[in-house]
Amino acid sequence: MSSENKSNIKSEKESSQESPKASPLDQEIAKLKSHDFRVKNNAIKTLGKMKDAKAREKLFEIAKSEHFDGRLRVSAIDSLGRGSKGNELFRLLQALAGDPKQSREVRRTCITQLTRFKDPKSIRIFVSALDDEYRFIRFWAVRGLIKIQDIKATVGLVKALGDEDEEIRKEVSAHLERIGEEAVPALIKAFNNPEANKFLKYGVMGLLKRIPSQKSFEALVKALEDENDRVVTIAIRGLGKSNNPDAIRPLIHLYKTNERKRRLIEDALFRIGQENPKILVIMLAALLLEEDQSLPAMAMSLFAKIPQSYIQLGDIASDKELNEDFRAKIKKVMEQL
Fold it and tell me: What is the pLDDT of residues 171-207, one digit of tens each?
């Protein structure tokens, strides 16, 4: 056999003994060295679908490494999140979410993924994120707190009532209203905080108006003295809605001192009078002796709106111990009704 033929045979044997083809996993990992973003991003997504420990390790490596483009790290974190939850992933998400050096999208992605765990250990991270400048970080922090059944999460949510974003405030308010009376102490405490902004104050007042409880009622009465005009308005409407006769006296007192709110106060008193006509008529009758003629006028206006007022006034006038001047004023009102 010629030397040329021997060479050809050797070459064929070497060719048949080539190294085996790289595995699908190794092929995807190799693509991460590409200069094309889409190639690398698709490789990360493919790794996320592989049920292989080595693939998951690579995703963790990408998520942690600042040498990778931020968008690729986000893709890796999302891919990890679509897999099984575990302590390693939880610790990574917490570490990155709480690190201000990370990009806002990396932190937002981590907070989004943390909401899936519903773990009270994330409350601190979520509450801290409520101060972030990035709206979507705050939004997902709120979502995370909503999913956690813990009073500490509720306290954190109350803070978000002061968020500058209306959509966030609405979502928080709706959830706190569903919680109901359990949220009232946290709401009142937040309202009384000297650093509470106007959004938080309005939000708290609106919720106290819709959550019936003795503590809510007491807070609404106290708010009648607030220096914020809108807070006072919300409190008046809330007391009117409460139908609690104990609100009559503080509302009448405010009527005497706040001329700008008189129409609103009269409406609130009328609502209370529909459920408690006797008590309201008795307290309004006392206003007939006031020198400020706006007070008897208000009483007369309400008497005319309350069907039972004529009978109630008649009962008062029939009291033998009643001052004659007072009796005469009541009878005059009855004649006008």
Answer: 999 999 999 999 999 999 999 999 999 999 999 999 9
CA nearest neighbour of 190 among 169, 160, 230, 212: 160
Gap between the Cα atoms of 116 and 104, Å rounded: 19
Select from 217, 207, 218, 147 the least CA-distant residue to 183. Answer: 207
Q: What are phi and psi of 50, to 5 degrees?
A: -85, 135
Task: Tell me, yes or no, if the pTM score tops 0.70.
Answer: yes
How far apart CA 276 and CA 281 sit, in angstroms, is: 9
Other beta carbons within 10 angstroms of residue 100's beta carbon come to 8
Indicate the pLDDT class of residue 148, thresholds 50, 70 and 90: very high
CB within 8 A of 89, min separation 6: which ones? Answer: 80, 81, 83, 113
Cα–Cα distance for residue pair 329/337, rounded to 1 Å: 13
